Each structure stands twice: as C-alpha cells, then as structure tokens.
C-alpha cells in the first residue's frame, strides 16, 4: 500500500510486536463514557479500535478546546399538521472515475481466482448532486414554514390520521428503531406507503434535540442515496418524522443473513458506491458548511427493491465547522465499533470521522462480519490489524465473506480492502475524503467488470 496510514501500521507493528498483546488484553472491556447509553451505543469491543489508541502518537497530545456552531435545540413554534420543505437544486455529477486504483504487487494473493458471472452488475442511476455553491444553509429551521413537496406531494396529516396509517402504532407495523425513536410502516388513505419515526412520553425530552436536528437536516437535503423527508408532526408530547418507505430492509439485516439470497459481490460494490455518493453529497453540501452524519453503519443503510442503498437516520448528524474552522468541538455520539478514535479522544468532529466509519462499513460489506463480536474468540475477530496482516501474507481470499458463492479475482479484492484500511487509518489526516473514495470505488468496479468480461459500463 502506498499511503501513510498503512505505512504507519507496518512500522509500528514491526517496532512494537507487543501491540497486539496489549490489544488483546483490552478486549472485552466496556465503554465508561457517560454519553454511551444502552439505547444508542452497544458494548465496546476494544479489539476493533484499541490498536488505534495504542498505535497513534497523536493520542499523546493534550486536548485543546475549540468552539463550534451548534444547531438550535428547540424550535420556535409547533403545528398540528405535517409540513415539508422544498429547495431548488441544479444537477452536478461527481467527476468520472480516474484509472482504477490497483494494488501494490506485494499484496497480490498467492492464488487469485476469477469466475465469469451470468448476472450483470446493477446499473447505477444518475448521481444528481445539489450544487454546493447554490445552497445557502438556513440559520434556523422554522416549523412554521409550510412549503410544498414537488417530488411526492405535500403531506398534511394530523395525529389521528398518522395513528390510523400505523394501525394505532401496532407492534405488527414496527419495522425498526433509530436514534430518534421507533420506526413504523404506515399506509396512507391514498395508498402511499411511508415510514414514521415516533418519540413519546419519557423519551420526549431526551429526543428533543435529535428531532429538531433530523428535521432541520432532512429538510435541506435532496439526493437519491439519502432518505427523503415527506413531513413531520410536532404537537404536545408527540413528535413524528415521516419519510419515504424503503422496502428491502437494512444492510444490517442482509449481512446478518435475514434475507435470501445472500448479497452477491456485484451488489456489495454497488451498495458501497451508493453510500459513498450519499456521504459525498453531505460533505459537500455547501461552500461554507458540511453535514456530518456521525452514525454511518449497516443498520442506517436502507435498500430499495432494486437493491440501491439510501443513507438514513440523521438523529446524530450535525453541521460541520464553518469556513473559518476546520473542526467542531462536540460531545461524542455514534455507535461503538464505528466511532473515529481521534474523535473519541479529542471530541473534535470533522467529515473524516464519517470516512473512518465508512472504512469499517466497507470491511463489513466485504467480510460479512461485525466490528464488535464479543462472543467470538480473540483470534477469530475481525480487526484492522488482522486484515492488514492477511493482506501482507497474500491471503486476501481468507478475508471474504464465505457465503458469497462467486469466486472473485484477488486483483479486485486487494484494492477494495486497501481502500477500507485507508479510510480507517488511525490518524484522520491519513484518510481520504469521500469524493476520492467514490472515484476509487468506481475504479474497482470498472476493473471488476473488465475481469469478468462484462466491459466497463456502469
């Protein structure tokens, strides 16, 4: 590998072979940060990222305080109807992929394999991005605004209509749980199917800021790889967010084997590209500010009937630093196993924190394994060091999810894993931005198609 993050791993592993021993000793401990609640954050498996704390010299530096702009915690008015926002966007495509990013010869697997597939990679839809220069961020989102949606039609519903759509919030209509609350499937009178996120009662105050933040951000964005806001309701102790319904479940459920057939390799590449496009849009939202998701993980990736991916759950998301700052100082939010170790240490948030989470997501897509698996023996857990060592040994095929029936050429797998490690580099300065990640993923896909004899058509 030819990037600084992996040079760092190699040099430190050679100088300090005891690092792996220290990493193993730390595994199994739980997080003691008061921000890590049972609802939002699972138990810590230090084997996934404790190596970052041991390896990275930047963790020895003193924490410095900075200040950043935060979103308003409440809203100025409340309504007994669902409203939605509209923004005019101009189309802008992400630049075409450069030449494929090929693996270093030293990482070529001992026995690369290739197989011709009868199934074509799903065509990627056009990536219409909002022009970052043409969107000015709203200083404060007003619940009193009721512009219309031109895409799917405005939703103006009262609480009784929402309750009817979900059969009075029946458990049989429950389809998931997000950072904001429980998610239900709803059938409107006109036949439209929607997803409804609800927080109520003792969770009301806890989710106050998350509700405002999610509505604020969802009202601003418009991209096919991000879940669309259809409306919201804020009355008394009821707060609801209504979004488009994405029918094929979460990426988490597919990786866990809850759906059949198992995702094939071409679908996994397409999903990775879709998620990368969605994050690129957020990170280039405007010239002045970025949107940082802060909780990129498989359970927040929804799949359509055509297996296209959409990023969801913006309850932890926030606006990034303005043009005069490089980072925002904020409390740590997210899910253990996907959290940027540098963000955890310093509380300084940048878009590179999403890049780290995306790197862990890529490893899950490729291996089919979670970053936190406390029930497995230490030597069977997927860690960054383990992945790196397998690449060094030339055993890349041992890393791939064994449930994938296709045999994939090692020359395609190596740059895929290299990109994942690059994104999850312990030092955020060594990580790429999401725009370059998209370009490298397209390069990998082009090479995959070429080796399967399908040509380079997307």
Automatic annotation (TrEMBL):
<keyword id="KW-0547">Nucleotide-binding</keyword>
<comment type="similarity">
    <text>Belongs to the protein kinase superfamily.</text>
</comment>
<protein>
    <recommendedName>
        <fullName>non-specific serine/threonine protein kinase</fullName>
        <ecNumber>2.7.11.1</ecNumber>
    </recommendedName>
</protein>
<dbReference type="InterPro" id="IPR001245">
    <property type="entry name" value="Ser-Thr/Tyr_kinase_cat_dom"/>
</dbReference>
<keyword id="KW-0808">Transferase</keyword>
<dbReference type="GO" id="GO:0005524">
    <property type="term" value="F:ATP binding"/>
</dbReference>
<dbReference type="InterPro" id="IPR011009">
    <property type="entry name" value="Kinase-like_dom_sf"/>
</dbReference>
<dbReference type="InterPro" id="IPR008271">
    <property type="entry name" value="Ser/Thr_kinase_AS"/>
</dbReference>
<keyword id="KW-0418">Kinase</keyword>
<dbReference type="InterPro" id="IPR000719">
    <property type="entry name" value="Prot_kinase_dom"/>
</dbReference>
<comment type="subunit">
    <text>Interacts with calmodulin (CaM) in a Ca(2+)-dependent manner.</text>
</comment>
<keyword id="KW-0723">Serine/threonine-protein kinase</keyword>
<feature type="region of interest" description="Disordered">
    <location>
        <begin position="82"/>
        <end position="140"/>
    </location>
</feature>
<dbReference type="InterPro" id="IPR017441">
    <property type="entry name" value="Protein_kinase_ATP_BS"/>
</dbReference>
<feature type="compositionally biased region" description="Low complexity">
    <location>
        <begin position="82"/>
        <end position="92"/>
    </location>
</feature>
<dbReference type="GO" id="GO:0004674">
    <property type="term" value="F:protein serine/threonine kinase activity"/>
</dbReference>
<dbReference type="Pfam" id="PF07714">
    <property type="entry name" value="PK_Tyr_Ser-Thr"/>
</dbReference>
<keyword id="KW-0067">ATP-binding</keyword>
<feature type="binding site">
    <location>
        <position position="197"/>
    </location>
    <ligand>
        <name>ATP</name>
    </ligand>
</feature>
<feature type="domain" description="Protein kinase">
    <location>
        <begin position="169"/>
        <end position="443"/>
    </location>
</feature>
């Amino acid at each position: 590998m030819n990037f600084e993050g992996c040079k760092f791993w190699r040099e430190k592993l050679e100088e300090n072979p005891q690092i792996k021993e220290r990493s193993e000793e730390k595994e199994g401990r739980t997080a003691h940060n008061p921000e890590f609640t049972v609802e939002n954050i699972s138990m810590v498996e230090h084997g996934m990222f404790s190596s970052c704390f041991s390896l990275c010299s930047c963790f020895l530096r003193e924490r410095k305080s900075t200040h950043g702009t935060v979103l308003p915690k409440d809203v100025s008015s409340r309504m007994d109807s669902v409203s939605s926002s509209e923004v005019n966007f101009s189309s802008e495509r992400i630049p075409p992929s450069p030449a494929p990013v090929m693996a270093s010869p030293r990482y070529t697997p001992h026995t690369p394999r290739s197989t011709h597939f009868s199934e074509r990679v799903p065509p990627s839809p056009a990536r219409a991005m909002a022009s970052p220069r043409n969107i000015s961020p709203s200083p404060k989102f007003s619940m009193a605004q009721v512009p219309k949606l031109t895409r799917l039609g405005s939703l103006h519903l009262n609480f009784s209509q929402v309750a009817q759509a979900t059969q009075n919030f029946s458990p049989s209509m429950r389809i998931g749980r997000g950072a904001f609350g429980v998610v239900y499937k709803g059938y409107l009178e006109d036949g439209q199917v929607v997803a409804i996120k609800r927080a109520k009662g003792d969770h009301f105050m806890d989710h106050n800021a998350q509700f405002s933040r999610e509505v604020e951000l969802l009202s601003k964005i418009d991209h096919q790889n991000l879940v669309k806001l259809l409306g919201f309701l804020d009355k008394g102790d009821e707060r609801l967010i209504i979004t488009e319904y994405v029918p094929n479940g979460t990426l988490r459920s597919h990786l866990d084997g809850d759906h059949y057939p198992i995702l094939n390799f071409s679908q996994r590449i397409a999903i990775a590209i879709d998620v990368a496009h969605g994050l690129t849009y957020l990170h280039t939202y405007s010239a002045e500010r970025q949107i940082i998701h802060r909780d990129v993980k498989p359970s927040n990736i929804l799949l359509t009937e055509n297996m296209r991916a959409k990023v969801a759950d913006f309850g932890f998301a926030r606006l990034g630093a303005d043009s005069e700052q490089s980072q925002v100082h904020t409390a740590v939010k997210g899910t253990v196993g996907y959290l940027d170790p540098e963000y955890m240490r310093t509380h300084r948030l940048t878009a590179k924190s999403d890049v780290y989470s995306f790197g862990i997501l890529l490893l899950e897509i490729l291996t089919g394994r979670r970053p936190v698996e406390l029930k497995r023996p230490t030597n069977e857990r997927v860690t960054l060091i383990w992945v790196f060592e397998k690449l060094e040994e030339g055993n890349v095929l041992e890393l791939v999810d064994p449930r994938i029936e296709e045999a994939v050429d090692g020359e395609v797998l190596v740059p895929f894993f290299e990109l994942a490690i690059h994104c999850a580099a312990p030092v955020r300065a060594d990580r790429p931005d999401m725009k370059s990640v998209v370009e490298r993923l397209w390069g990998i896909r082009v090479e995959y198609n070429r080796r399967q004899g399908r040509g380079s058509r997307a």
